[in-house]
Write a structure and sequence with these properties.
Elements: H1 12-18, E1 19-27, E2 32-34, H2 36-46, E3 56-58, H3 64-83, E4 85-86, E5 92-96, H4 97-137, H5 149-154, E6 157-164, H6 177-216, H7 229-245, H8 251-264, H9 269-274, H10 276-292
Antiparallel strand pairs: 1-5, 1-6, 2-3, 4-5
Helix pairs in contact: 3-4, 6-7, 6-10, 7-8, 8-10
Length: 295
């Protein structure tokens, strides 16, 4: 990987005009609670002593609307991670401005609206779901553990924001010229480190999907890899994304993107399953890419 990632010094000012930082925060009501009475009962029944574990109950069992929004929140986080590369701060990623205005922001808006529509469904069904919970939990049901409708609403949020990639000269502090130079140099080091790590993360994605393809295309005396359409689709999606996520304009990454796309575009897995020669030929191309870019 070191052979692929070059010195990033001086990249930050360019990145300031071609990318933005995106922060996504999603909150979901956590309905899992420790039940002290049941914990003690389980310990006593087992003859256990000390801090040997805890019994955790779900306040809202079989609440389909809550399960749906929980899955949607996780899917939205994963989508954002797939479409961006990580920055130095937890929960903050980088997206190119071209990608931002060509689908990313609209998708974010659509997901936010869908999220809050799902929140309304949770609130509509809350009273009935609580009755079901009372029946399911029986003696473990404690009405004091259940929030009001307004309190439930406040437990859900889908917030996102965009921020410019900071520039080393943008310091709003009153320091001497020597102090300002020190801060600028420190910023450059941190910014270039963040950019380098973001690009390493992207290269690792490329390496992982390429190695997976190579493994699935294998044909040996002992076994044959199983080809999955989902793997091919993921690789093609990544090829499309690499153009926008290549924040440093790395020519090696662009060559990798073009070569990988050229190899995979139009590939028919059904044909490869029937034609072992064609299959091995594609695998050789994939392996050549892995060797060529010295991962």
């Amino acid at each position: 990987m070191n052979a692929v990632i070059k010195d990033m010094v001086g990249i930050a000012p360019t990145l300031h005009s071609s990318a933005v930082l995106v922060s996504l925060k999603i909150g979901i009501w956590n309905t899992k609670r420790k039940d002290k009475k049941q914990t003690e009962k389980v310990k006593n029944d087992a003859g256990a002593q000390g801090n040997v574990g805890a019994y955790q109950k779900n306040l809202m069992p079989d609440f389909r609307e809550l399960e749906s929004i929980t899955k949607f929140g996780a899917d939205s986080r994963n989508w954002c991670k797939r479409e961006t590369v990580p920055w130095t701060f937890d929960g903050v990623n980088v997206v190119s401005t071209e990608k931002l205005w060509n689908g990313f922001d609209q998708e974010m808006q659509d997901r936010q609206k869908q999220f809050y529509d799902m929140v309304e469904l949770v609130l509509i069904e809350y009273a009935q779901a609580r009755q079901i919970a009372q029946f399911r939990l029986s003696t473990m049901f404690d009405v004091n553990e259940y929030p009001t409708i307004d309190e439930v609403r406040r437990k859900f949020y889908f917030e996102y924001s965009y921020h410019p990639v900071p520039q080393s000269g943008d310091f709003r502090v009153d320091v001497s010229n020597q102090g300002l130079q020190f801060l600028q140099e420190q910023f450059e080091r941190e910014a270039n480190k963040a950019i380098s790590e973001a690009m390493v993360s992207l290269w690792e994605r490329v390496k992982k999907i390429t190695e997976t393809l190579s493994n699935q295309l294998r044909v040996t005396d002992k076994d044959k890899g199983k080809l999955y359409q989902s793997t091919l689709d993921t690789a093609l999606d990544l090829c499309n994304m690499m153009k926008d996520l290549n924040l440093t304009g790395d020519p090696k990454m662009e060559r990798m993107r073009r070569d990988l796309f050229s190899t995979l575009n139009g590939m028919d897995l059904n044909d490869l399953k029937k034609d072992e020669t064609a299959r091995l030929s594609v695998k050789q191309e994939i392996d050549d890419l892995l060797s060529k870019f010295d991962f």
